[in-house]
């Protein structure tokens, strides 16, 4: 399928300190035409019609009434991470948009860090390192 025929997905910039990870961008590009927030802000009218999904990465882009009103064909907001407490679900559902997230995406890394912190505390590693 040509890129022009793919549904658009709005997301943050790719790369950099706070941008979308390259492997996630590659995955999205297989199924969507990737539209960064910067591109969208430069051409809201044309690109707003094409966007059917928003991919929220590290709580960005911020989903508010203004954004929802500028995306008439929006169908789903996908949040990369656990929880959706930073999204106004009642506002979003009022626009007929579904919200998804990745509930178990960071379960293993969270458990690993928790164990590492408990072991570091029990063995007083931080104090030893400072000495």
UniProtKB/TrEMBL annotation:
InterPro entries: D-isomer_2-hydroxyacid_DH, D-isomer_2_OHA_DH_cat_dom. Signal peptide: none annotated. Keywords: Oxidoreductase. It comes from Upupa epops (Eurasian hoopoe). GO terms for cellular component: cytosol. One of its GO terms (molecular function) is hydroxypyruvate reductase [NAD(P)H] activity. It comes from the Eukaryota. This is HPPR reductase. PANTHER family: 2-HYDROXYACID DEHYDROGENASE-RELATED, 2-KETOGLUCONATE REDUCTASE. Residues 49-113 form the D-isomer specific 2-hydroxyacid dehydrogenase catalytic domain.
């Amino acid at each position: 399928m040509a890129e022009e025929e793919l549904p658009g997905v709005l997301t943050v910039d790719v790369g950099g300190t706070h941008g979308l990870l390259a492997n996630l961008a590659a995955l999205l590009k297989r199924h969507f035409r990737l539209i960064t927030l910067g591109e969208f802000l430069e051409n809201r009218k044309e690109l707003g019609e094409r966007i059917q999904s928003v991919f929220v990465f590290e709580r960005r882009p911020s989903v508010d009434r203004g954004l929802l009103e500028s995306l008439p064909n929006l169908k789903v907001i996908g949040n990369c991470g656990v929880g959706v407490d930073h999204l106004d679900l009642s506002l979003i559902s009022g626009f007929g948009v579904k919200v998804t997230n990745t509930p178990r995406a960071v379960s293993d890394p969270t458990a690993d860090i928790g164990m590492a912190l408990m072991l570091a505390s029990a063995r007083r590693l931080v104090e030893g390192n400072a000495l």
